[in-house]
Amino acid sequence: MENALLVGLSRQMALRRELDVIANNMANVSTNGFKARSARFNEFVMPKASADSFKPADKPLSFVVDKGTPIDLSQGAVERTGNPLDVALRGDVFLVVQTPGGDRYTRAGSLDINAQGQLVTQSGQPVLGDGGPISFGASDSNPRIAPDGTVSTDQGQSGKLRMVRFADARLLSSEGANLFASATPPLPAGPEARLEPGAVERSNVKAVIEMTRLMEVQRSYQNVANMLSKADELRSKAISRLADQQA
Predict the structure, then answer these.
(1) Cα 103 from chain centre
(2) Cβ atoms < 10 Å from Cβ of 225
(3) What is the C-alpha to C-alpha distance for residues 59 and 63, in angstroms, rounded to an integer?
(4) pLDDT tens digits, one per residue of 9-40
(5) What would the mean pLDDT of 189-206 be, rounded to a whole number?
(6) CB within 8 A of 217, min separation 6: which ones?
(7) Whole-angstrom Cα distance, residue 237 to residue 212?
(8) Mean pLDDT in residue range 85-108
């Protein structure tokens, strides 16, 4: 009976984890460049008891083990904006931004110019070029970004966006504000990397699928809760009857 409670509890913890992942995806369904995540779990079979001579033999117990939340790197829909500082990233490339914690990586290509004349993300992080942050002077006008990442104005070239890729981008960790961190150094995107100016990549979250998953998780959680309630009721009855017999 205790085993049923423990198994049910492990299932509820896994469902709670999956619910958190779904909620984060739904919250970012309109976030440019956002990449959805999914919950993955494995079965953990408890080792058998050492006293195998008893009949019937012990049955294996299966628990749920959290195996992480892999990232979905599929391309989001590209939407035209007409803003010359917006760029939609194609393929597996990322932009590099400067943060107090070091370089971070993003797919959010909706860029702007801050009060200091630096090219920044919507969250205010400076976007890095091949030579560092890209800045504009007071006399620079008509800033624009070319498909190869070259940033220029009517007064000339201001820099070139640094684009990178990763040997296995699925290992990237999310840090909030649509930024990713990597434990391994990135690789240069190469001369074949291209952007689509005047457009942004939308989130790749599929809202209908996430809503369906949300209903399935809620239904499963309720079923487990009902099972645990019945197991607890059965235990209470067993204890009560045992006490009556002893009396």
Answers:
(1) 18
(2) 13
(3) 13
(4) 888 888 989 999 999 999 999 999 999 999 88
(5) 92
(6) 15, 18, 19, 22
(7) 38
(8) 94
Between CA 150 and CA 144 the distance in angstroms is: 8
Per-residue pLDDT of 202-220, as tens digits, reads 999 999 999 999 999 999 9
The alpha carbon of 14 is separated from its chain's Cα centroid by a whole number of angstroms, namely: 17
> Residue 174, SS3?
strand
Q: How many residues does the chain have?
A: 247
Given the DSSP bridges, would you call strands 156-160 and 87-89 parallel, antiparallel or unpaired? unpaired
- 19/214 Cα distance (integer angstroms): 7
Using DSSP bridges, classify how beta strands 41-45 and 62-66 pair: parallel, antiparallel or unpaired.
antiparallel
* Distance between CA atoms of residues 199 and 109, nearest Å: 8
CA–CA separation, 34 and 206 (whole Å): 11
Helix, strand, or coil (residue 139)? coil
Work out the burial of residue 127: count CB atoms within 10 Å of its CB; fewer than 13 is exposed, 13-18 middle, 19 or more buried. Answer: buried
Tokens of residue 239, six digits: 């204890």
pTM for this one?
A: 0.79
Would you state the structure tokens that stand for residue 136, as one six-digit string? 């504009």
DSSP one-letter code for 135? B
Both tokens of 135, joined, read 């800045």
For residues 207 and 122, what is the distance between their CA atoms, to the nearest angstrom? 23
User: How buried is residue 134: exposed, middle or buried, by Cβ count under 10 Å (0-12/13-18/19+)?
Assistant: buried
Q: Are 195 and 161 in contact (CB under 8 A)?
A: yes
Picking from 52, 151, 48, 175, the residue whose alpha carbon sits closest to that of residue 102 is 175
